[in-house]
Amino acid sequence: MTTEKYGTGADPRVTEALRQVVDPELGINIVDLGLVYGSEVRDGQVHVTMTMTTPACPMEELLMEMVHSAILRELSEARSVDVDLVWDPPWKPDMMSQAAKAQLGRT
Description:
Elements: H1 12-18, E1 36-42, E2 45-50, H2 60-74, E3 80-85, H3 98-103
Parallel strand pairs: 2-3
Antiparallel strand pairs: 1-2
Helix pairs in contact: 1-2
C-alpha cells in the first residue's frame, strides 16, 4: 500500500527529495513511513501535504525544517515551500511501505 491513495497526488521530484528526510527516531525516510500524503509544484511554489505519526510528535519542528531544506536543495525551480500538516486521515502503521515495515520488523 502506498500513501498516494490518501493524498492528492505526488510530484515525483518532490517525493525523491523527501526520501532524504529521515525520521531521527526511527531511521526511516518520511516517504516510506507514509507521512507524505501529496505534493504539487506550481510556478516555483512547492506544496506538500503530510502528517506525523502522532499529533504529539516531538520531532515535528525538526522534520518540518528538514522537509523545507530538502526541497529547496533538490528542486532548483523551488522558490518557496508550503507544508500543510494534516491529521485526517490519521497516520496508521499500515501506511508504511513494505521496506519500512521490514526495517521495523513489521512484515
